[in-house]
Design goal:
The protein has 219 residues and is an alpha+beta fold. It is 18% helix and 30% strand. The protein contains 7 helices and 9 strands. It has a 5-stranded antiparallel sheet. A hairpin with an 8-residue loop joins strand 7 and strand 8. The longest helix is centred in the first third of the chain and has 7 residues. The N terminus is likely disordered.
Length: 219
C-alpha cells in the first residue's frame, strides 16, 4: 500500500537546526474531473518548506508541508480528496527543468517558477474518498486512472496541475466537509479511531490520520 507520510511539524523544525539553506514556496494543486453532470474542479494552496545541508536525520533535503488536502465534490455528498503530499511534488513533476543541477541549485529555482506542471499518475498524491463523509473508517483509495471504479460510469480525472503561486495557504475547505476532523486532530487519532502507535496492518483507516488532510489547528 502506497502512503505519503508527512514529517511531523515539530520534528521537521528540529531538523532545521544547523541548516545553511532554507527555502519555501506556495504551490497550488488543481484537479479537474469530468462527471455525467459536467466538469467539476477543486484546488488548494499549500506551503512547502525545504531545508538543505547538515540535516540531523541524514537526508540532504528535508521537506515540510503546511495546509490541507485538495477537495473536489464529484456529486452531492461524494468527495474526492488529494491528500497532502510529501513536499516533493513539484521537484518530481518538473524534474526535466532542473536537469544537471544539484539539489542545492534547484531548491533556489523552484520559488521562481512561473509555469505550472501537469502531474502524471505516478506523481500524484494519494487520492481517497469516503463511502460516508461522516464516517472516517469508510475511507477508500481512489485510482487516479480509474475514477469510474469508485464514483461510477462517466467520472474521470481529466486534469491535475501544480503551480507555484503567491496565493495564501488554503484553510477551512476540508473541515467544512469532514465534521469530525477537528476532534481527531485534538485526540491524535487515526481514521480508525485508534490512538495506538503499534498498529501495523494494511487497513487504510489505520494508516491515515488527520494530518494527511490538514495541518491546521482547530478553532
Amino acid at each position: 500500500m502506497r502512503h505519503f507520510r508527512l514529517l511531523p511539524l515539530a520534528l521537521f523544525l528540529l531538523t532545521l537546526t544547523g541548516c545553511s539553506d532554507e527555502h519555501e514556496w506556495h504551490e497550488k494543486l488543481t484537479l479537474v474531473v469530468q462527471t455525467p453532470a459536467g466538469e467539476v474542479s477543486g484546488s488548494a494552496v499549500t506551503k512547502v518548506v525545504a531545508a538543505f545541508n547538515n540535516i540531523p536525520l541524514g537526508n540532504e533535503v528535508a521537506f515540510g508541508v503546511l495546509g490541507e488536502a485538495t477537495v473536489v465534490e464529484i456529486a452531492p455528498g461524494r468527495y474526492l480528496f488529494a491528500l497532502l503530499g510529501n513536499g516533493q511534488l513539484f521537484p518530481a513533476a518538473a524534474r526535466s527543468r532542473f536537469r544537471g543541477m544539484s539539489r542545492k541549485e534547484w531548491l533556489y529555482e523552484i520559488p521562481k517558477q512561473t509555469e505550472g506542471v501537469s502531474l502524471l499518475p505516478n506523481h500524484m498524491p494519494m487520492l481517497v474518498t469516503f463511502a460516508d463523509v461522516a464516517d472516517p473508517t469508510s475511507v477508500k483509495l481512489v485510482d487516479p486512472t480509474d475514477l469510474a471504479a469508485t464514483f461510477g460510469p462517466g467520472v474521470a480525472l481529466t486534469g491535475a496541475g501544480l503551480e507555484i503561486t503567491d496565493e495564501p495557504v488554503t484553510e477551512g475547505q476540508v473541515g467544512a466537509v469532514l465534521g469530525w476532523l477537528c476532534d481527531y486532530q485534538t485526540d491524535y487519532r487515526r481514521l480508525s479511531g485508534s490512538s495506538s502507535t503499534s498498529i501495523d496492518d494494511n487497513e487504510l483507516s489505520n494508516n491515515l490520520g488527520p494530518g494527511e488532510f490538514s495541518t491546521g489547528g482547530c478553532n
